[in-house]
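**Tokenised fold:**
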Amino acid sequence: MRSMPCSHIPDGDRMNTRFPPGFIYFVLLISVQAMFLRLVGFFMPIYFESLHFSGFQIGLYFSISGIAAIVFSLPMGIGADRISVRFILAASFLLIAASYAGFLVTRSFTAFCIIAFIGSFGSRFYQIAVNAMFFKIRTHDHRDAGVFSTFNSFAMGIGIVAGGVLLAIADFQLLFTVKVISYLVFAVLALFLPRTETVLIRLAEYQREVFTPKVLSLCVIFFLSSFHWGAEIVSYGPFLKQTLLLSPVGIGLYTGIGMIFVGIGAFIGMQLIARKIVRSMMTLLMIGFFLSGVFHVLMCVPNLPASFALRMVHEIGDGFISFSFFYGAAKLFRIDRVGGASAFITLWQSSGAMAGSAIFGVVGARYGHAVPLISSGIVLMFVPVGIALLRKSGFVRY
């Protein structure tokens, strides 16, 4: 069965259209979920260190947690075009709840790895479903990307701060319990999300959509940039604890306020595009990568006020990148096949994060947790150079 034609709203009409209730409900649900998601996130390596896991074990755990992303990204993305996305989201929340329930009953490394593998399905289902639903129900040109990125990042920041405060007065077991209960609630709430159009599309049509120089070069760009996600997964929390000597509350405030600055960066990016101060999404993306990379390196100074200030500039760069992804990817693919097509890009992102976790888990344990952050920051700094060379060569026109 051939894909159904897309319904496009002219840009002028989009700009005069209010956000529909379904889009608002989606943004609110995903933002609240992001807050609960980050209650534990950055603190997990610290939890594993308290259980006396080695750097190799911590890196292996986070690598295993990315297996589903590598193996099943494309099938899941295609499924998001064939099955109503709200059901996929509900299933992802149930799987995430099950994984945190497992954390409550074990402290065995082997058991944690099994749980990580199960939880990775939920996390991957969730990320692909969220991207697919955003692209399918968006109604505006740039404001939807800016609003979604801003609200999501602000919520994550609040969640990290709340997690640090809770860990100061309670323990990880309480946070795991809160996450189990909250994700069961999210699974029910997801069923009330807007229906998305389903359509059966041949694999060959996806291949024509993604196997183009523009898309493939973007995949390589996001693969390299996502190395710093892997570095942060295994080294960010321990760096803040061991080098900057922060307590759980301090770590929560440092990282949580940072995520709020990601939202600020997304909002600034939206304004730069809206006011035509920056006319190209790729130019904004290059600026974002440069700021993110340079200040990812500089934030590793062993001085708390300086590190915090420099980190906030890094986060603004990440906000530019987040906004550029949601704004730009929507223009790359047809709406009726955006689930599978966007999953192709996130597959490369997940591969980079997984590789970064495996490599930097060992590097951080051996040479100190600042080294992975500095190394991955240098990689980020060179991403804009690659984009500029592609533009200059004429191989890809962005």
